[in-house]
Amino acid sequence: MKKFYITTPIYYVNDIPHVGHAYTTIAADVMARYKRVKGYDVFFLTGTDEHGQKIEKAARSMGLAPKELADKVVVNFKKLWERLGIGYSHFIRTTDFYHEEGVSRIFEMLYKKGDIYLGEYEGWYCVPCETFWAESQLGSGNVCPDCGRPVEKLKEKSYFFRLSAYQDRLLEFYEKNPDFVRPQGRMNEIVSFVKRGLEDISVSRTTFKWGIPVPFDKSHVIYVWFDALFNYVTGIGYGWDEEKFKKYWPADIHFIGKDILRFHAIYWPAFLMACGLEPPRRIFAHGWWTVEGRKMSKSLRNIVDPNKLIDQFGADVVRYFLMREVPFGLDGDFSHKALVTRINSELANDLGNLFHRVIAMTERYFKGTVPPYFEGSNEVRTKVNETLREYEEAMENQAFSRALEATFNLVRYANRYVDTKAPWELYKSGKLEELGEVLYELLEIMRITAILCYPFMPLKSREMFKKLGVDKVEPEEEDFNWGGLKGGERVAKGDPLFVRVDEEEVLGKVLKEIEDAEKEEKEEMEEFVSIEDFVKLKLVVAEVIEAERVKNSSKLIKLILNIGNERRTVVAGIGGSYEPSELVGKKVIYFSNLKPKKIRGIESQGMILAAGNEERIYLPILPEDTPVGSPVK
Ligand code: MSP
After folding, report:
1. 413: nearest Cα among 454, 444, 374, 370
2. Quick one: CA dihedral 245, 249, 252, 254, positive or negative?
3. Residue 145: is the preceding peptide bond cis (ω within 30°)?
4. Which fold has domain 536-618?
5. Residue nearest to atom 5 of ligand 1 (CA)
6. What share of the chain is helix, strand, coil (3-state, %, to 5)?
7. Are residues 319 and 30 in contact, defined by beta-carbon separation less than 8 angstroms?
8. Are the beta carbons of 442 and 414 closer than 8 angstroms?
9. pTM across the whole model
10. How many alpha carbons fall within 13 Å on the CB side of residue 434?
């Protein structure tokens, strides 16, 4: 039997599952189900990423041990996957014994081989992203180039992975496997990144404890990304079930979000090469969701909380919408208006209606039994074959929305076929044989539609089969063939497949939720600032070394500040109260890590502390002997 091994990222447990997590996982489930239908022995792995500083910090702020936090959050993930009908083969937790053991042994093996060595690291570290950055990579104002948050300077002894030694092998590998990363544009980004040169990467930490200890040096824990990536092999038996591992490795596809592509397309194959293992066959990096046109903030996320969406619309509708709305690979927007339109026009009107009317006619004209087998007209058979071809081609390329488009084109075709053939006329004029043939064709199209819908909407697909008098939970490859209905099956109208939703009601509610979310965010910003947020601001003592008025402005003064190791430019609105000449030589308090802003064409790199109002501004001037660059506490 052919095998197919598919994975999702393993999700961090400092957060409750949101629609972004659900998206990747649903996509992987769709692909897994499709491949099972196609006769593959599928292994589908998902799970949680439970080590690292981020989890340790989150747990501490909640007064929990990291493992306690993980145990709590993991339940939310598992429950959600169950509600969404995710049929994974195994759920891995990086705190599972076999995984910790496996990673620990791999680390030791690579150390003995010389691919891992002890060195010293000095660099900028972004805690939320668990990533080190070189100074040259930082955004202006010393922020993380990925998430925009301030980074911390860290100096520590660290074990390094000799990534630089794999640059050529990686490039050679990309060259031979141009489909390794999908979509294509992302492959190009990776190739040019690697061509610019790879540095060795730090793969251990000493500044916190929550991780897998380096087996031969317990003062270090293994870097969370080194730990996490290896889940893809330990999860299928590497180190504990060689037979299973050999059967499924290499992975046929890793589904991930575009945010974590570098780890998967550069580090991961290099780690595997070092272990003497084959790289995965494909990495598909999908796009990012916004909500109602806005970036997904914490409170906006609640509006698209997957559990709430399931309560409101049902799991299969959520699955359908996420797969249909945006081509897999591109960024997209979750808009409730689009959701309502898809439910009402595609699901209820096109698909639901087809089932309703054709089954009603079968009941009326054939006492509720499927008419005898008919090989089908040329036109219908051609349309069905074309649809199957398009669908398969799309599914093999993870073009899920295109596969659904092909499916729904067939549904709409069938609805038109009812209108043009007008079975009621055939009945009236006594053409019963032709009537039987037309209804058979339509019912057969509906059966095939149920198969095509299966990976996306497994429960609805089962309902569709039931309505056609077929008892099927999981279709098989041969079910694609024309003639699955033998004739004589008992159809049943039952409840409507999809219920229309009231657009005004849904949109009204969402609008209100967005307003509340925005209000909440504003209030949060206005009310209290947590110590964690406050300490992100870096205030230092600066000496004004130059000051001049900004042209054509009575209020703005351009200052050049000395902050010890560098010079900074700041545009300050103090010109109504101070003359530039009286500022030179003064020691002021400077916010050194604010995002730079262009003011009158000048890049202002932060602000200085001031008090006062419209009429007069007062600068807190420090004693002359205050050391420049010293932090303000
Ligand atoms: N733990 C790492 C992955 C390790 S894999 C060896 C991680 N976890 S995460 O919890 O942050 O989840 C990241 C994944 O969630 C993304 O890659 C993506 O699959 C999904 N998404 C999170 N937010 C998303 C959106 N706003 N939109 C779409 N998907 C996003 O990174």
Report:
1. 444
2. positive
3. no
4. OB fold (Dihydrolipoamide Acetyltransferase, E2P) (2.40.50)
5. 9
6. 45, 20, 35
7. yes
8. yes
9. 0.82
10. 12
**pLDDT score for 528:** 67
Q: Does pLDDT of 358 surpass 90?
A: yes
Q: Hey, whose CA ends up nearest to atom 7 of ligand 1? A: 11
Q: Which residue has the tokens 């006594």?
A: 430
Domain ranges of the chain: 341-480, 536-618
pLDDT of residue 374: 98
**CA geometry: angle at 354 spanning 350 and 356, to 5°?**
120
Q: What is the pLDDT of residue 135?
A: 80
Cβ < 6 Å from ligand 1: which residues?
9-12, 20-21, 23-24, 49, 228-229, 231, 256-257, 259-260, 288-289, 296
Provide mean pLDDT across the span 481-510: 95
Report pLDDT for 527: 61
Q: What is the mean pLDDT of residues 77-103?
A: 98
Report which residue type is found at 187: M
User: What homologous superfamily does CATH list for 341-480?
Assistant: Isoleucyl-tRNA Synthetase; Domain 1 (1.10.730.10)
**Closest ligand 1 atom, residue 287 Cα:** 28
- The pLDDT mean for the chain works out to 94
With the most atoms of ligand 1 within 8 angstroms of its CB, the residue from 53, 73, 86, 259 to mutate is 259
